[in-house]
Amino acid sequence: MSRTPYETFPGDLGDLRALRDLGDAAGVTSDGAAWLASAGTYPRSTLAFWAERPDAPVVLPCGTAFDVVNTPALFGRRMLDRLWDEGPGSGPVAVFRGRMLLFAAPGTAARLPSLLDWEEWGGRGQAVPPLLCHGTGDAVTVPAPRGGGSPVPAGARWLVAPDTRQPWLPGPEILLWAAVRAARSTVRISIFPPADQDAKVYDVSRRR
Length: 208
Prior knowledge:
Largest sheet: 5 strands, antiparallel
Strand content: 5-15%
């Protein structure tokens, strides 16, 4: 998905002008920051905070702008590869404390668990981890618009960053498909992962 030009946004224009040039290698833009801030009760306060501290993560509620599917990092990577290699791509994706956060359409957290139950997810063996679904009433740590200096392994950072005010978000059926494909994958998992597990680049222009 190509970057969109800066546009005015209802609210504190000074805060957004300060965010205009926050885009970094992860692809975060002022439009993406505005979309993330819209998840909270006070978007202008979030934008003002990021204008002053663009390298600081924040905690935002789920259920309005997005839901989040939370997986172990390695299994989430396999899901992400299936989404990009064989599917429609993904929405924004972050990593935090050894977990991968796949941003999904609102309502996914309420629907996906029942779909997983239908697939007898818990009976597929210990190699298949539980998927945590965060929706209405939950909150997640959202990475900063601009990354700090050296990446911290346990820190929050973007793998696929939001760059538009209305990013495409996968729904429960698509994420179920990706999870089942990842579970059936024959990709060999080494206990010694590559030095940079986030090195793969995804073509965000394919996102719907």
